[in-house]
Amino acid sequence: MTSFKQFFHKVLHHPNTLPWVLISTMVAIMASYNTVIRYGFSESMFLRILIVYPFIVAFIYYLRAYVTLPIALKLHQYFPSIVTERIPKHVSVPLLVIAFNVSVMMVWFTEMHRQLYPHFLLGYFDNWMKTFFVAVPVFFFIVHPAIIYLFNHLRNRYPLLTILENNN
Asked: For the whole prediction, is pTM greater than 0.90?
């Protein structure tokens, strides 16, 4: 039991756990949303989402970590007066990351569902707008506050076990 407790504490306090949970939750919501609004809700569509879900989560995590987050931070570095004077950094960075991630994912989504979109560019922009304007409020008003609250609660209840780790 102590090894499980130690593992739980390490995972809970690991710096990458929060981004993985945020991304996993957003991918689950947005993949479900994008599939359901186009095909409806059925068991076969649900199974299709479950099959591609781990790949999308990993793809978005690495896309965020190595491409979209560095680009968003560079934009803040090169244009600090334009971006940060109007929008605080804790809002503008996630907003830019969401915009970039949605841009990449909608190219993939529009191409995968080509039968629904005979004109790629029109379908892409339509998909981008529908997804972006759902993803932003879902992230800022539901997912991010709920997960931050949950993590703060769990971290307060289960603090990092530095004393136990030093004894082993």
From this structure: no
